[in-house]
Amino acid sequence: MIANTPSIRRSTHRVVVRWKDHAVQVGGGAPVVVQSMTNTDTADALNTALQIKALYLAGSEVVRITVNNDAAAQAVPYIREQLDKMKIPVPIVGDFHYNGHLLLQKYPDCAKALSKYRINPGNVGSSRSRDDNFAAMIAMAIEYDKPVRIGVNWGSLDQGLLARMMDDNGRRAEPWPAEQLMYEALIESALSSAHKAVELGLPADRIVLSCKVSQVQDLIAVYRELSKRSEFPLHLGLTEAGMGTKGIVASTAAMAVLLQEGIGDTIRVSLTPEPGGDRTKEVVVAQEILQSLGLRAFTPQVIACPGCGRTTSTVFQELADQIQTYLRDQMPIWKNTYAGVETLKVAVMGCVVNGPGESKHADIGISLPGTGEAPSAPVFLDGQRSVTLKGDNIAQEFQKIVQRYVEQ
Ligand code: SF4
Fold first, then answer.
1. What ipTM was predicted for this assembly?
2. Is 371 strand, coil or helix?
3. Alpha-carbon torsion (149, 222, 163, 168), positive or negative
4. 398: number of Cβ within 10 Å
């Protein structure tokens, strides 16, 4: 049989990331969760709260913030308070490096206001203090009943562990090649830390793992192996994915392969924003990856042809763009009112070659006239030809048809 669906999702523990009664489930068969990270100075509590709000409204189900110093840790409870006042229930995750054990112990209100702690086992302290510092962070997670992500990065891998593994590798009859040593070291760091956390008393269903690297093939190789060796939910993401189309394409290429194989329980698309760029773009890209793979539905899809020499006007590109923006803008209202609206398919096509065919296959479609065609645009609803639009107000009239269709 020819199948058009992703593989069965890999079985994992289910981890609940919650703020009060708002719970986000990661793994255990739950839909793949979209998350993102702020790039404000966390000490600037108001701007951080506003960016979290924007990310949440764009669709981020969990938002991570940097907690890197006293000022940031002190700001966290105030950020949470501001979000609660704005009725933004999104769980916030504290991203800790180097001094997380100190900050969590020194600022209990910060520890309580966060919904999850990210621990990087590669930089939780010097080689002498690492175990104690790691244990201190796990103790705080146990005390405040918080899940953790044990997040390993190739760029900040535990150098002591890597040195030991290199020594062991040198003694092998057939040493691993460099890439395999890198993959094994990443996986070992994540798994040994997770097992240590369990030994320290943190339940296994409070642990999410990640092993981030910046190259597509490395990410695929590491996560395929990591998924075979554990039942912890996995956070997928290509770190330092890059700017613009490069970051989007690299993240999509890596994550699509893994998600298609049933690997990955939460994703973040890490895009370097252009100066003044919109941070919410990473949320939109993450949603589009999941929706394109048929794993989740967030917003109605616009199917638009690329245009060619058969259409010399830009009317249909403009219409496709307007409809896409309109649908996305309406979703915050529609999603609570019209069940299933996010699965809607709207076709906006440029000429008679594929226009009527694609429009019939969509829920709503319009086939605009190409060069030399009669100046009329037939509209299709549920595969049936409906009205024909003409004149200068095709865009507005089609938008009204979409609105009426949704309401009905
Ligand atoms: Fe070109 Fe028509 Fe195909 Fe659009 S539908 S790409 S205008 S041939």
1. 0.99
2. coil
3. positive
4. 24
pLDDT band at 312 (very low <50, low <70, confident <90, very high): low
Task: Give, in degrees to the nearest 5, the angle at Cα 211 between 207 and 214.
Answer: 150
Please give the radius of gyration of the chain, using alpha carbons only, rounded to the nearest integer: 24
How far apart CA 141 and CA 77 sit, in angstroms, is 17
Q: How far is the CA of 236 from the centre of ligand 1 (A)?
A: 37
Give the position, in ligand 1's atom list, of the atom nearest the Cα of 352: 2
Question: Of ligand 1's atoms, which has the minimum distance to the CA of residue 367?
Answer: 5
Q: What is the distance between the alpha carbons of residues 241 and 298, in angstroms, rounded to a whole number?
A: 23
H or E stretch including 404?
A: helix 394-407
Burial 128-163, CB ≥16 within 10 A → b, else e: eebeebbbbbbbbbbeeebbbbbbbbbebbbeebbe
pLDDT, tens digit (0-9, with 9 covering 90-100), for 1-15:
787 777 789 999 999
| Helices (H), ranges, 156-215 | 159-170, 178-199
Cα–Cα distances in Å, from 217 out to 12, 191, 213, 372?
Answer: 23, 21, 9, 48
